[in-house]
Design a protein that fits this description.
Elements: E1 5-11, H1 14-28, E2 32-38, E3 53-56, H2 59-68, E4 75-77, E5 80-81, H3 88-91, E6 98-103, H4 106-118, E7 125-130, E8 142-145, E9 157-160, E10 165-166, H5 168-177, H6 183-223, E11 227-232, E12 237-240, H7 242-248, H8 252-255, H9 260-263, H10 270-275, E13 279-286, E14 289-299, E15 305-314, H11 315-332, H12 348-361, E16 367-370, H13 377-386, E17 395-399, H14 405-413, E18 414-415, E19 428-429, H15 431-434, E20 439-443, H16 450-462, E21 464-465, E22 474-475, E23 479-484, H17 488-493, H18 499-505, E24 508-511, H19 522-534, E25 539-540, H20 542-550, H21 556-570, E26 576-577, H22 603-616, H23 620-635, H24 642-651, H25 658-671, E27 674-675, E28 684-685, H26 687-699
Parallel strand pairs: 1-2, 1-3, 3-4, 6-7, 6-8, 8-9, 16-23, 16-24, 17-20, 20-23, 25-26
Antiparallel strand pairs: 5-10, 11-12, 11-15, 13-14, 14-15, 18-19, 21-22, 27-28
Helix pairs in contact: 5-6, 12-13, 19-21, 22-25, 23-26, 24-25
């Protein structure tokens, strides 16, 4: 074999030198020895005098080395192209995307742009960028590179399409200039054709898959009964399915490609585009009809918003579905709705009850809840169920006081068809069967008759039920929670309750406190019910609040809720509750109603001691303002915290550090002028504190 020809690859970029060297070696290694000359490293001409051919990577390089080499030295400028497969990321860019194309020189950058447009990428706005370029659009944040070209600092996304490869025409020129065997051209041509064929075949398969996916997506869009619309990054409508056409009375052909703001100005996509976050369950009036609207952004891998998709559902359908769900739940039986988080109150008596209930919620032990009517026993039972391992199973309740004896048995145990007059065809399952794997709540268990008690005891002992009129038994797995507003122990002594059933039920006894036992929760409960039922505040004058705290509340929380309904119904939101709005029965237990609340003998001395104590601290003015603030907040049934006092004093030109406010509050608490609540409740004036306020008012 003759000696190999010496060929130099010349480029500004060392990476380009190496890549082109590898490509030439791949096809011509048996005929040529390929060396590299990187102008970035040295502009000195290589020492070899017998170099057969210099190949310039681009026009600027060609001009540069042509000046340095002898006139008779053979120099070839390479024609280079791009790999089709490397362009997929650019092809995926949205229409009218703006992109910088980087090169070592302006001319090479423009050559790359021409190549990209030659591949049909004419819907992308390309701008050339080169080393030292100053005049370029600085808002563009995407750049295309073919190696390690420099890019401006504004660029957030870089698309590397790899070094441009030599095209077939360059190989032909090299073979001709070096007088190499012509059959080499055939081998290289076959390889290029095979590469192009495989690439085209792969892209064809991707296109087929994309077409099939698009077809399936279209079937889905045409089938669903929910209106779906989508827009691209330019706010143009790109999806408008048949359900949207029907519900909005708009033809898709008339709106696709139009700006969504022109077609549906009521659907605000701007917020989703600005925040990149979904808009959920927004109610909008569109073309005189109300819809529940959901909008979600379409994001790329870098969380850039490329568009948005929205679903619209007529509000009457939502209401119908809600009714259907409620009806189905009622048909299937009760479910627990309240957890421990739904129990409102901070009183120690209530907290103790909740902690005990939480402790035993995780067991299967039978629990007996004892407490007066209206204290929230069923709410507590539901919370126990939802905190138990059975939380995903049924919660079934029966109130013994609400059903006559002849119905209790059939409700509890069920019956077979024809077992009695009026029995349903096919029979009926009992509540114990419906509660299988879950919890059964036996409310007002003290009202069960002795006959029902006997059968109930058997069920609790055997864990199986027999329907009325049936000879077979059905095993059950239920957790039992019972409740009563009577003393079962006393009923046992009176012979009205089975002792064996009593001990079966009271494995764990939990006492539910009355409202009288948790009076500190009264303001909190009024606030809760006013906000929940009427979305408003309910303010009380100090005298009214004191009366409500002193009232004996025989109906407990149920009574308090009813009073809240009454007060919210007759009092304007901007007014406070005064004595004239209260019903007579609320005042019957308060003999001094309408007059300042009495305080113990020696009040004057106590107030004098408080004032003297603050005088020693140089804080009598602070004392007056603090007591005044307490009184003002009490009018709106609100407590006072340290931060509130610090802010209030500062506004009045009496700045006071928080540690000093804490000291003042401690003094007032020890003197009996305030009660200190939790952080959320704040502190409040006592009767002595109110008396102190009246004293300061009289002196003014």
């Amino acid at each position: 074999m003759p000696d190999k020809k010496i060929v130099y690859i010349v480029s500004q970029n060392p990476f380009t030198c190496v890549q082109v060297q590898q490509q030439l070696t791949q096809y011509l290694a048996g005929y040529i020895e390929v060396r590299t000359w990187c102008l970035k490293d040295t502009e000195e001409v290589p020492a070899e005098k017998d170099c057969d051919l210099f190949i310039a990577a681009n026009k600027p390089v060609y001009r540069e080395i042509r000046k340095k080499l002898p006139a008779d030295q053979r120099v070839l400028m390479a024609n280079r192209t791009l790999e089709v497969d490397s362009l997929e990321e650019i092809m995926a860019l949205p229409k009218d995307s703006e992109v910088l194309v980087a090169g070592s020189w302006k001319e090479t950058a423009q050559e790359k742009i021409d190549l990209l447009r030659g591949f049909g990428l004419d819907k992308i706005r390309f701008y050339p960028y080169w080393d030292g370029c100053e005049d370029y659009p600085r808002h563009v944040d995407i750049a295309v590179i073919t190696s390690d070209q420099a890019i401006p600092p504004e660029i957030k996304r870089v698309i590397d399409i790899g070094v441009r490869t030599l095209d077939l025409s360059t190989f032909v020129e090299i073979i001709v200039k070096l007088d190499l065997p012509r059959e080499i051209i055939d081998d290289i041509s076959k390889h290029y054709i095979a590469t192009i064929f495989h690439s085209a075949e792969r892209r064809s398969k991707i296109a087929e898959q994309s077409a099939r996916l698009k077809q399936r997506l279209q079937v889905v869009l045409n089938t669903v009964d929910q209106a779906i619309i989508a827009i691209d990054e330019t706010n143009e409508l790109v999806v408008f399915n048949p359900a949207a056409e029907k519900q909005l009375s708009i033809a898709a052909d008339a709106v696709l490609g139009r700006n969504v703001g022109e077609v549906l100005p009521e659907v605000d996509f701007r917020t989703v585009f600005q925040t990149g976050e979904s808009l959920i369950n927004s109610i909008r009036c569109i073309r005189s009809n109300y819809f529940v609207v959901n909008i979600s952004p379409i994001l790329d891998e870098e969380n850039k918003v490329l568009g948005a998709v929205s679903t619209l559902k007529p509000i009457h359908e939502v209401q119908e579905m809600d009714t259907k769900v409620r009806r189905e739940l009622k048909r299937k039986g009760n479910i627990a709705k309240y957890s421990f988080e739904d129990i409102i109150g901070e009183a120690p008596a209530l907290k103790s009850t909740i902690e005990m209930a939480k402790t035993f919620a995780g067991t299967d032990l039978t629990i007996l809840l004892e407490g007066a009517s209206g204290t929230g026993k069923e709410l507590l039972a539901q919370a126990i169920h939802l905190a138990s391992p059975r939380k995903n199973a049924p919660f079934v309740a029966i109130n013994f006081a609400a059903l006559p004896d002849n119905l209790v048995e059939s409700e509890l145990f069920g019956y077979e068809e024809g077992s009695f007059t009026g029995a349903k065809k096919g029979g009926k399952s009992g509540l114990f069967e419906e509660a299988h794997t879950g919890t059964i709540f036996l409310d007002e268990i003290g009202d069960a008759s002795l006959e029902v008690q006997k059968k109930l005891l058997r069920v609790l002992e055997e864990r199986e039920v027999r329907r009325i009129g049936s000879s077979t038994v059905t095993p059950i797995n239920v957790r039992v929670i019972a409740a009563t507003n009577q003393s079962l122990k006393q009923l046992v002594k009176q012979g009205k309750y089975r002792e064996d059933l009593y001990y079966r039920l009271c494995t764990i006894q939990v006492m539910v406190p009355t409202l009288r036992q948790r009076k500190e929760d009264i303001p909190l409960l009024f606030r809760y019910f006013a906000r929940k039922l009427y979305q408003r505040e309910l303010g009380f004058t100090p005298d009214v609040l004191r009366l409500l705290m002193d009232y004996h509340w025989p109906g407990n929380i149920r009574e308090l809720q009813n009073i809240t309904n009454y007060l919210c119904g007759i009092i304007k939101p901007e007014d406070s509750v005064t004595t004239q709005y209260l019903t007579t029965y609320l005042t019957q237990d308060v003999p001094t109603w309408g007059a300042p609340a009495p305080v113990e003998t020696g009040t004057d001395d106590l107030m004098k001691n408080v004032i003297q104590e603050f005088d020693k601290l140089g804080g009598q003015d602070y004392l007056k303002e603090i007591i005044k603030k307490f009184h003002e907040e009490a009018t709106f049934n609100r407590g006072v915290g340290r931060q509130m006092l610090v802010s209030s004093l500062a506004q009045k030109g009496m700045p006071c550090p928080e540690h000093k406010v804490r000291l003042f509050l401690k003094k007032l608490e020890r003197a009996g002028c305030i009660t200190v609540g939790t952080t959320r409740q704040g502190s409040r004036l006592t009767h002595l504190g109110e008396a102190l306020h009246r004293l300061f008012t009289q002196r003014m």
